[in-house]
């Protein structure tokens, strides 16, 4: 677990320091290169760079799903850290099958909707 955390931290430092908008160091999305359409993950690297540099609005413009995932994770981690210190019960993610199906359908819907070319959906694109 510590090794994975160290690798994640190193990756975040690299993305925070190196602007993916100005370099080709980070891999491009194969789906977008092939189809010209955004996948659910398109814009996440640029969004993470924006977040790590304090620009939440720009991060949301690149990929709002990233911001939702990171905000949810931050709340969960904070809750568990506080609960652990207070000796309280921690929150665990043990979703039932239907919950995973709903999450998958929500991500799939995001994938479709972010590629619609008219308002109010066109702002969901990655901006690349």
Overview of the molecule:
This protein is mainly α. The protein has one domain (2-67, 95-124). 61% of the residues lie in helices and 0% in strands. The protein has helices spanning 2-17, 30-35, 44-52, 56-62, 64-86, 97-113. It starts with a helix and ends in a 15-residue tail after the last helix. The model has no long low-confidence stretch (mean pLDDT 87). Keywords: Membrane, Transmembrane, Transmembrane helix. It holds the Pfam family DUF2752.
Task: Name the poorly predicted regions.
Answer: none
Whole-number tally of structural domains = 1
β-strand amount:
under 5%
> Element order, helices and strands?
HHHHHH
Question: Based on the structure, what is the oligomeric state of the protein chains?
Answer: single chain
Rg is: 17 Å
Q: DSSP helix count?
A: 6
Q: What global shape is seen?
A: globular
Tell me the total number of β-strands. 0
Instruction: Kindly state the percentage of residues in helix.
Output: 55-70%
Average predicted local confidence, pLDDT: 87
Largest sheet: none
Helix-strand category:
mainly alpha
Q: What's the N-to-C terminus distance?
A: 34 Å
Keywords: Membrane, Transmembrane, Transmembrane helix
Pfam family, one: DUF2752
Transmembrane segments: 64-83, 95-113
InterPro entries: DUF2752
